[in-house]
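Ticket #4471: complex job returned nothing on first submit. Input attached below:
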Amino acid sequence: MKTNDVILQTTTKVVFFIIFLFSIHIFFAGHYTPGGGFVGGLLTTGALLLLLLAFDLKTVRKALPFNFLIVVALGLLIALLTSAWPMLFNEPFLTHAFGDYDLPFLGESSLHTATLFDLGVYLVVVGAGMTMIQTIGGDT
Amino acid sequence: MAFQILLNVFIAIVWMLMNSSFSATSFMIGYLIGLVLLILMGGFFKHRLYVWRLWAAVKLFFLFLRELTMSNISVLMLVLKPKLDLQPMIFALPTDLKHDWELTLLSSLITLTPGTVVLYVSDDQRTLYVHAIDVDDVDEAIYSIKNTFERAIKEVSRP
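Support reply: We reran it on our side without changes. The output follows.
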């Protein structure tokens, strides 16, 4: 029986963005406070899962037309490149560089290439989670 | 409403550019000046000023707080009463709210006040089915919801 999901769907449209924002916050908080790529990725997957619960697979696939297997590949590629890059400069594998920069608008910020590695982890977690859910939930 | 807020932010940015000081304080000053200008030019807009809708939203928030306190106390009285003579009831609440968010807001407000829960929204979105823990008179319950929450939500959404 098809019921009227107006309350669930309208609430999801608001809550989705809050969860998504929180996942990005968790992702960037990872260096100094609890958080990081893995939890951030899982939270993003949770937000997308909420969309899947409130709407259906076809709608979400139309709104987010990513092939999540490619997202996994992209994440692995980013992680591999950031770890292999120092080898070009006669540094060992997985050497990270960091420094303080004075960015416009953001002010004094310290940038670290470990964030790029974390971005790879994030993408792999999101891609793997969504692939699993879509494969179990869908027909194909 | 969105256009007026955008215009107000735009005026604030122009004020910041005129003074060439880019800080939160000068943005606030520009925003307040823009607000005064908007109030002066109020007659030129098709809809009422967004400040009044904001004020209606604040009033709705305080109305919700009041209803929450009152119905919490009444449910507490029901719980503490030694004799269990409740009159639970599911009734249909006709509503003429149009947008999805209005309907969601009304259902959330009804559900958050103790004693009443929204069970189901009809397919044409014109009727809410509400379960209430203790109702003496259905018409009176419907009237009280319509008169408080629905009227306040309509006040917020009126353009």
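Residues 6-29 of chain A form the longest helix (24 residues). Closing as resolved unless it happens again.
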